[in-house]
Design a protein that fits this description.
Blueprint lengths: L2 H20 L4 H7 L6 H9 L7 H8 L15 E6 L5 H7 L4 E6 L4 H11 L20 E4 L23 H11 L3 E7 L9 H12 L2 E9 L10 E9 L37 H16 L8 E2 L13 H4 L4 E4 L2 E4 L3 H7 L12 H10 L3 H16 L3
Parallel strand pairs: 1-2, 1-3, 3-4, 7-8
Antiparallel strand pairs: 4-6, 5-6, 8-9
Helix pairs in contact: 2-3, 5-13
């Protein structure tokens, strides 16, 4: 190899490594983020060591990976907001798109979710909310939070308030009591309403009402707001009756009822790493037959571009993708790509995914449907703007 070629290789290797470090990514995260194949991290490692070099297109793809925060805080936002159990910021994004809110505090404990939050909003959430005193939380107008729902989910242990995770709701109640914001929006699984014969939900609503909030709740499906997913969630809105005298004017948004199609969120030329293996596919088919013989409907679910909508994507999607598999002609079905998972939750394509595929599936499966949040946020803002 000539001296000039060696110098070029060294320069390229340095550029790739510097870019990766600047993005605060591992080699695996960078490889997944730019859509490389299954063992892309090994390729990145070779490039950084100067053992091989990327094509001009591959190099451009890495060096052009966005560094600029796509959703910086609305500095001129009229209403101050705090974002609890923020995850990757889906609820924040729904309010951000109104242009009316400014986030003054956020809290999240998962380090990978924090990484995604930082990349998209340019801010680092505070840690464990149970360790943060109310006096250290800024005054605010709006509190939002998708408090952990494992305790209330149909897939969970169904222990509700007996489950320590369930008691995290009371961190929200504590802050509402101490800071008295004008309003709040909470999101949770549909089963929260019926859990423990309705007693769990009654405790939640009565707790909120005891803090002098007028409380509203509604169930919405993602597909009713233009997103091709049958994800149903309960949304709880409350207004401080002493500060917002026109609280009675609040109305939840009307579902759009637009026709949805899975093809609208699918990518083209998807890498083969998302096609499930023969072993996994055979296992899915075998288990579905077993479930059918037992008379239940469990098992994998297949969809194609013409399907109206998919099942609900879950945080465990990374394991086998069984709840949403995309048909492929002449070969095994495939899982959604991380970008498709993001679209299935209504995240715009400029939302940065700076983590591995495994973590991105967990994050989007745990997140909220952005268009539903946005529609509710618009109605909340109307009330705040029209205070009598």
């Amino acid at each position: 190899m000539s001296i000039i070629a060696q110098i070029e290789d060294f320069s390229i290797a340095k550029q790739i490594k510097n870019k990766r470090l600047k993005l605060n990514m591992t080699q695996k995260e960078l490889a997944d983020a730019v859509g490389m194949s299954k063992y892309g991290d090994r390729t990145i490692r070779r490039w950084e060591n100067g053992e091989s070099r990327p094509s001009p297109l591959e190099l451009k793809q890495i060096l052009n990976f966005p560094e600029k925060t796509p959703f910086p805080n609305n500095k001129k936002g009229e209403f101050k907001m705090i974002d609890l159990f923020s995850g990757i910021g889906g609820t924040r994004l729904g309010f951000h798109l109104t242009g009316k809110t400014k986030v003054v505090f956020s809290s999240e404990i998962d380090k990978f979710s924090i990484k995604t939050y930082e990349a998209n909003f340019g801010e680092t959430p505070s840690g464990d909310i149970t360790q943060i005193l109310s006096e250290n939380i800024p005054n605010h107008d709006i509190l939002v939070g998708g408090f952990p729902c494992q305790a209330f989910s149909q897939a969970g242990k169904k222990l509700g308030f007996e489950d320590t995770r369930g008691t995290l709701f009371f961190e929200i109640a504590r802050i509402l009591k101490d800071k008295k914001p004008k309003c709040f929006l909470l999101e949770n699984v549909k089963n929260l309403i019926s859990h423990n014969k309705g007693n769990t939900f009654n405790v939640i609503v009565n707790t909120l009402k005891s803090l002098d909030y007028e409380v509203y709740h509604n169930l919405f499906k993602a597909k009713d707001f233009g997103v091709p997913q049958n994800r149903e969630r309960v949304y709880i809105v409350g207004f401080n009756k002493k500060l917002i005298p026109n609280y009675g004017e609040f109305k939840f948004p009307t579902p759009l009822n637009t026709i949805t199609k899975v093809g609208d969120i699918l990518e083209t030329n998807v890498d083969s790493k998302y096609t499930i293996s023969d072993n996994l596919w055979n296992g899915h088919q075998r288990r579905k037959i077993q479930h059918k013989e037992k008379g239940n409907g469990f098992g994998y679910s297949l969809f194609n571009k013409n399907s109206s909508y998919t099942n609900t994507i879950s945080a465990r999607y990374y394991k086998d993708g069984s709840e949403i598999l995309i048909e492929q002609k002449g070969k095994n079905p495939r899982k959604l790509t991380p970008r498709e998972a993001a679209r299935l939750q209504g995240f715009p394509d400029n939302f940065i995914i700076p983590v591995s595929d495994t973590q991105s599936y967990k994050q989007f499966g745990n997140s909220v449907v952005v268009p539903v949040i946005h529609a509710i946020a618009i109605e909340i803002i109307k009330i705040l703007n029209n205070q009598k």
